[in-house]
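Reviewer 2 asked us to include a model.

Predict the structure of this chain.
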Amino acid sequence: MYRKNARSMQIHTSSMLALILALATGATDALAGNETRFTVVDSSPTSWVARGYSDYTVSADNGWSVEVERNFDNGISLDFDGPPLPGTPVDYWDVEFAAPFNQVITPGLYENFQRFPFQDDDRPGLGFHSTGRGDNMASGFFEVFEATYGPGGEVLSFSADFTHYGEQNPDNWAIVEVRYNVPEPTSAMIMLVGASVCGLARRKNRMR
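Predicted model (structure tokens):
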């Protein structure tokens, strides 16, 4: 199910840094300033939405932009748009996150999600789409490392990783990172959170 490897361990290292050391910053709808990106860390060839991509990242560096807003389930939606990377047809990625019972998204692990916006009231929801593709059903889990809001409820920063099983089939897996306006980790920061990363890896391994 969850494919743990050296690459994904490095990814979770960055995620823990965001949780511990990120600071709230001004709101923006552009990919600028702090780290903002969408990354398919790895995916199976049978992942309909992620298309088997791995080590795939879009950001301002390759001409992409993002719109971030609160969705009707009190969660967070991110729409990434830009020119297709060489050899790919994808010009947008959409991800929607929702907590159970319409609660505000806060840092934490959200297990056993259903496809947004069709999740049960007591289950988290996650929607995942790329150009022309979406699944009828989905399952998996996501972990939010940072979610900060302005005085009007607008999203100031957001950081999350998720593992998505298309059509609720663990063989159709995708491991994805989403970052919006969060500080980029430094090598000094990485040295501070080794124990936290090990704890995260153990928790993920129990879900295999």
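Residues 157 and 181 are 5 Å apart (CA to CA). Residues 1-30, 187-194 have pLDDT under 50 and may be disordered. We have added this to the supplementary material.
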